[in-house]
Request: fold
Amino acid sequence: MKLRQIFTCFPGGKHKVLTMSYDDGKLADRRLVEIFNKNGLKGTFHLNAGLMEKDKERIQLSEVKELYKGHEVSSHTFTHPTIERCPLSEVVKQVMYDRELLEQACGYPVRGMSYPNGSYSEDIKKLLPACGIEYSRIVGNTDNFAMPTDYLEWTSTCHHSHNLMENAERFANLHKSQYLYMMYVWGHSYEFDRDNIWDLIEGFAEYIGGRDDIWYATNIEIVDYMNAAKNLRFSADGKMVYNPSAISVWLRIDMDFVEIKPGETREI
Reply:
């Protein structure tokens, strides 16, 4: 019996994904979003709904829907406490109050988060799914491009001030298509003003944007896609596949790329 090689691919048959993750929703997000839009990058923006109307240095709720169109609005808790020190009942309130106001502002369910002050615990991780949270980013840099093994403890490749261009160049030069690679960059947009380094993120976006072999995605798009890929159902002989999900999934079968459309059963 001949066995074929069947690999999961990203949309379009790609094997690399880039995602950007920015916290706190300060006014500098406006310029950052412009840079992303110009170069085709996708960002996830983690916001504190309880601080926005009280702080005129932050994006206001009334601006959220239009500003972040095409990107992702995500939770950063209601008032940004160090949640590992909080009672779990208060953590639930921090997440749910934040989600409620952000969802009213953006018009869709908020399903992701980044931990405020990088603070979390195993108990917090366990309660987040019941709060509707499917992933949460921690603080730190891996300097690698591995896919996450725990989406509730999602570590980035790098903060934008940590080896950004070096990592971008290594990422751009990855050509072994038998692997899936992810570059994940995080930070705070106000740091570009504070440190006078807008040229860094502009140069990065121009360098890494617009490439045919990279999928540009938000955090939740990656989670949704990988879940859809995991949910594919294959026949015993591997010659048929059913996609029960609402999004297409791409496979590489030997050297051919195949799109499995939502709800489709097809021979492969």
